[in-house]
């Protein structure tokens, strides 16, 4: 009996150690099972987004937070928000967030039948060359742990193919991860074009843009360079 208790204690310590290690590698927050209601303006293109008004900053400017919209499985929220571009809506869903990204897993969309404010301006930040890994936003934010790397490659490919926006995960000098939403040179969503590079270390030259709280990298898929 003492041996059994000792074995169970050791197993418990191993599980706790594994969970701690996993959280340290992928520190995203998934509020699975906790539903919220968010009101904002739907943007259908190039990615499904809910823009939420967070009031004004000290300079008196309106502040909007952009939440990437995905469905409850491995797809984007396109069918749920079709025809609602520019309209105010109330969404029931679950939050998933990490670093500079916020994802809203969308269960129900209520059209408030009122036009929203103009879309947040897209501001060019200049040319960059970034090194990192292409991941899907939902899993990388916290739905899966790990939500990146070779072990997660097949899941990420299915998610991106299903319409979940791909993002470039870049390790900062201080050790934290930062995420750049990926678009082509025309500012359109990319999905199939990035599948060959998912989970591999790569270098991407492109131009950085900011859309509210989102940082966007526009690039030519033909210029992606593998680092291995």
Structure description:
- This protein is α+β, with helices and mostly antiparallel strands.
- The chain folds into two domains: 30-115, Beta Barrel (OB fold (Dihydrolipoamide Acetyltransferase, E2P)); 122-226, OB fold (Dihydrolipoamide Acetyltransferase, E2P) (Beta Barrel), CATH 2.40.50.
- Helices cover 19% and strands 45% of the residues.
- It contains four helices and twelve strands; from the N terminus they run H-E-E-E-E-H-E-E-E-H-H-E-E-E-E-E.
- It has helices at residues 2-25, 78-81, 137-143, 153-161; strands spanning 29-30, 36-43, 49-56, 62-70, 87-98, 101-115, 122-136, 166-171, 177-184, 201-211, 214-219, 225-226.
- The strands form two sheets. It has a five-stranded mixed beta barrel. Strands 7-8-9-11-10 form a five-stranded mixed barrel.
- The longest helix has 24 residues, at 2-25.
- Residues 2-24 have low confidence and may be disordered.
């Amino acid at each position: 009996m003492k041996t059994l208790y000792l074995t169970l204690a050791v197993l418990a310590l191993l599980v706790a150690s594994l969970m701690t290690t996993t959280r340290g590698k992928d520190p995203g927050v998934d509020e699975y099972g906790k539903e919220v209601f968010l009101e904002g303006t739907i943007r259908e293109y190039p990615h499904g987004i809910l823009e939420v008004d967070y009031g004004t900053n000290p300079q008196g400017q309106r502040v909007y937070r952009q939440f990437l919209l995905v469905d409850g499985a491995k797809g984007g929220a396109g069918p749920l928000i079709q025809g609602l571009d520019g309209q105010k809506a109330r969404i029931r869903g679950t939050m998933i967030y990490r670093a500079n990204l916020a994802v809203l897993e969308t269960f129900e969309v209520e059209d408030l039948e009122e036009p929203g404010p103009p879309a947040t301006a897209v501001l060019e930040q200049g040319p960059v060359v970034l090194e990192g890994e292409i991941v899907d936003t939902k899993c990388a934010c916290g739905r899966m742990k790990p939500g990146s790397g070779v072990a997660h490659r097949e899941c990420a490919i299915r998610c991106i193919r299903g319409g979940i926006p791909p993002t470039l995960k870049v390790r900062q000098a201080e050790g934290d991860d930062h995420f750049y939403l990926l678009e082509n040179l025309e500012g359109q969503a990319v999905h199939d074009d990035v599948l060959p590079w998912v989970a591999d270390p790569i270098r991407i030259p492109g131009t950085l843009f900011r859309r509210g709280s989102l940082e966007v990298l526009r690039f030519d898929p033909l210029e992606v360079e593998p680092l291995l």
